[in-house]
Write a structure and sequence with these properties.
By secondary structure, this protein is α+β, with helices and mostly antiparallel strands. Helices cover 17% and strands 34% of the residues. The radius of gyration is 17 Å and the shape is globular.
């Protein structure tokens, strides 16, 4: 499903809009298209994803909740084969010590293809900017993902994608690379309009894959996009 795509567009639905306005997080649902322009035509949707979690988890633990999530080929009404599975364990709201780099004191998520594990993502203890480390099925570090930085990595570079376009970028780097060097790919949160941004958690992401990424690496980066969404863009997390 992903091998021949250099990038994809991930669009979260406004599922549970009224529920979220009343303060209860809804399960996440996503439609996935080949690109942003294709998202204007529902017939061009080629993957669909839905989170499974309990109301208790969503209400009491917010963006730190445990959940499972599946990505299928096709659409909600015409699901095909399983493309990707995600398993997010319950996480502590704060990492109490830099020497505790394991769940539940570290934000983690595991990826599978429906039959076997294909990798994971985690957020180790950080000083200035959080970075997500992507690992393959053998546990080898594959990519580092974090927002573009300046001042030697001490703060976010607000002009990395230009001014006044309301894009929020996360750049994909080679593992243990210099963050000042050129990224190999991007995950960019796109502006959805005032009403959607103000009253819902619905987010859209444009993924630009590294040129050397294979199908499994692209699946892991898609999973990392869902991870970024829950860590940085859910309302309960933003209020905290």
């Amino acid at each position: 499903m992903l091998r021949d795509h250099s990038g994809i567009f991930v669009k979260q639905t406004r599922k549970g809009c009224v529920q979220e306005l009343m303060g209860c997080e809804a399960t996440n649902e996503f439609k996935i298209f080949p690109n942003k322009d294709a998202a204007k035509d529902a017939s061009k949707q080629f993957m669909y994803s839905l989170e499974e979690s309990t109301c208790f988890m969503r209400q009491c633990f917010g963006s730190n909740r445990s959940f499972t999530q599946t990505v299928w080929s096709g659409s909600k009404d015409a699901k095909g084969s399983v493309v990707l599975t995600l398993d997010r364990p319950l996480a502590c709201a704060m990492q109490p010590c830099c020497c505790i780099n394991s769940a539940p004191f570290m934000q983690t998520i595991n990826f599978g293809d429906g039959d076997s594990p294909i990798g994971s993502a985690e957020v180790p203890c950080f000083f200035a900017l959080p970075a997500i480390k992507i690992k393959d099925e053998a546990g080898k570090e594959e990519y580092d993902i974090h927002m573009p930085s300046c001042c030697g990595g001490m703060c976010v570079n607000p002009m990395a994608e230009g001014l006044c376009n309301l894009k929020i970028p996360f750049y994909i780097y080679a593992p243990n690379g210099d963050s000042e060097k050129k990224s190999v790919g991007k995950i960019i949160k796109m502006w959805r309009g005032f009403g959607t941004e103000m009253f819902t958690d619905a987010a859209s992401f444009q993924i630009e894959y590294p040129t050397d990424a294979d199908a499994k690496a692209k699946a892991r980066l898609l999973g990392a996009t869902f991870f970024i969404n829950i860590l940085f863009f859910e309302s309960k997390n933003e209020k905290n």
